[in-house]
Description:
The complex is a heterodimer.
Chain A (H helix, E strand, L loop, with lengths): L18 H21 L2 E6 L11 E4 L2 E11 L6 E7 L12 E5 L2 E2 L4 E2 L3 H4 L2 E5 L10 E3 L13 E8 L10 E4 L2 E12 L4 E9 L11 E4 L3 E6 L2 E6 L2 H6 L1 E5 L15 E5 L2 H6 L6 E7 L11 E4 L2 E9 L1 H8 L9 E7 L10 H16 L2 E7 L7 E7 L10 E2 L2 E3 L7 H17 L2 H28 L2 H22 L4 H29 L22
Parallel strand pairs in A: 1-9, 2-8, 10-18, 11-17, 14-18, 19-26, 20-24
Antiparallel strand pairs in A: 1-4, 2-3, 3-4, 5-8, 6-7, 10-13, 11-12, 12-13, 14-17, 15-16, 19-22, 20-21, 21-22, 23-24, 25-26
Chain B lengths: L1 H15 L7 E3 L18 E8 L7 E5 L5 E9 L3 H17 L14 E13 L3 E12 L2 E12 L5 H23 L1
Parallel strand pairs in B: 1-4, 2-5, 3-5
Antiparallel strand pairs in B: 3-4, 5-6, 6-7
Helix pairs in contact in B: 2-3
Amino acid sequence: MTDMKPKIETKKRLSVIWILPIVALVIGVWMVVHTKMSQGPVITISFKTAEGVVAGKTKIRYLNVDVGQVQAVTLNQEMDGVVVSVQLDPEANPLLKKDTQFWVVRARVGAGSVSGLSTLLGGAYIELSPGAKEGGRHLSFTGLESPPLTPTGAPGLKLNLYSNKAGSVSAGDAVLYNGYKVGRVEAMNFDEQRKQVHYSVFIDAPFDQLMNSSVRFWNVSGVEINASAGGIEVLTGSLDTVLLGGIAFGMPDGLEVGDPLESGAEFYLYATYSDMQEQPYSHHIDYVMEFKESLRGLSIGAPVEFRGIPVGYVKDILFDELAMESAGTEEGNRPIPVLVSIEPGRVGLPDTMESVEMMKANIARNVEVGLRGSLETGSLITGSLFINIDYRNDMAAVEMGESMGYATIPTVQVGLDKLEAQISSFLTKINELPLSEAMTSVSGTMNTMTETLNTIDALVKDIHSQQVSAELVKTLQDTQRMMRSVGQGSSAYEAIEGSMNKLNETLYNVEALTQTLNDKPNALVLPTTYPEDPIPGANSQ
Amino acid sequence: MRILLILATTLLISACSTQPISRSTYLLRSDHGLKTRALQATSELYLGEVMVASYLDQPGLVLEGVSNTIHTAKYHRWAEPLRTSLRQFLSTEISAGLGADIAISRMGRADLGRIDVKIDQLHGDMEGNAVLVAYWSLTQDGKTTGHQYVRSLPLQEPGYEALVAAEKRLLIDLAQSIANDLK
């Protein structure tokens, strides 16, 4: 009998029925991976406000090409700003550097420009400016509140300017060289440490090659008018700087080209071109000179000269500091300290710290051999004084002292003392004269002269006496006529008087103009209005 | 951008425009002798110096306030410097008072008597008075005699026109006083 036992064997092949789910799974995985691969990175950007930014709508753009979209807008942990989550396209990956910048483009109306008008219809978007620094991909950024004035990595030179007073210069204003725009003011803020206004300035390449340590910056906002004996000089920048403000730079007259600059160099921003020309040097040494005589006529800014050559100027008269120091003491007759600033650049030395050190050493050495300061009269008409530094004879050797925290240059009194010395010297010379011999000689000469005159007198009486007398009378008559022709009531006198009256009238008008300009310095440009005059007699009614 | 700049400039310039300022200018002239005639010095006198105090030597009319303060008017001015117009004015008025024309210069004659006048105060005050303080002297034959004139006059009505009229009346009175002393 045939063994009819059924043969049972396990089927090893996967059932055909599983093919469909597996294919579905593979497709699903592929779709997930593909989606992830095609999505690009998600980054976060912090802003102070989310004005105009809408989740799911606001685009991220680079060169006007959409490279992503805002996914979510949430408040930050401190609740003082917003965090915008952005889904970028994968091709935006190379743009994400450490210094990549983002800002919201929306309609802005400024003093000098109107931008982002297209966003009024299309809505705001976030602009991306790729960074230049290497160092891996970054996914978290701090957004800018306003568009950057200079693109990241733009070639040029970044400088820092400081001024004591905030003028009409603000971020975005032009920086001019000979009237041509070569850069711009990037930012303006107040430096609390320096107590000065700080301007961050960018000079575009290739104009950064114009920069060196000798250039000076000044404010060209508005119109500068200088009236002097030479006439009226009007200085302006371009029209937009006159209206909106701006900065110009250049080399002061007589200053040589300085050293090349590196990014971050610091400069002082002068208020006007004239200010810059008056005090163009940035390196100086301050000294104190103490004077016992009256300082009437010595003003701040008065020149300090060495044998007629200007080497500096009077920076301050430290009378307040002296009073503070002397308060409560019995030192009532202390000399008044005057702070002077000596500038090496004025004597042809480079305007550098090395020159300052060299001059400091020279002055210290020369004080020992008689270099002294003195107050001298600059103008007999105005009584203005200046400080003269020169070598004095017979000076005891002294070393430089210190006063009010500054090194001091010793001083000497001139004027009356000088006059006394001159009179003494003159009297000494008179004493040395051989007067008795001279008198004997003069006596002899006088006798001879008397004899000669007697002879001439006799001669005159003897010859042509009548004719000479007639000539003399005629000369006297001519002289009298001439005196009448220029005397009071004469035409010449009337002409002179007329000219004097005309001069008086001119001075009268000049006085009126001066008074108007004193009351309102911009009266030459803008109309002058004064408060109405009080009415005489109005109080009695 | 350009249109906006032009608009901004136009706005700025239009903002600078103002209403025209009303300014009054007063001429000091005598009302005597305004007829065509031959001028000839008939008096033995001539007007020498006419000086004005420094505070009057400017264009504006002057008002005295409290505590010796003065206000120089900006919108009410003399047409001529006082030192010029006063000389002409006083010469005419003194001549009218004397009944004979006095010369305005020595005319080459050493024998003419010389009148010198100094106006020390000529202003109005807030109470409605015009004040004139003057000194005058006569130098003749090597001798000099000095005189002082002080007088104030109430204004007819408030205002600068009335002040000018009052000051003019005071100056006429001064000239008459000089003429009376010279007669």
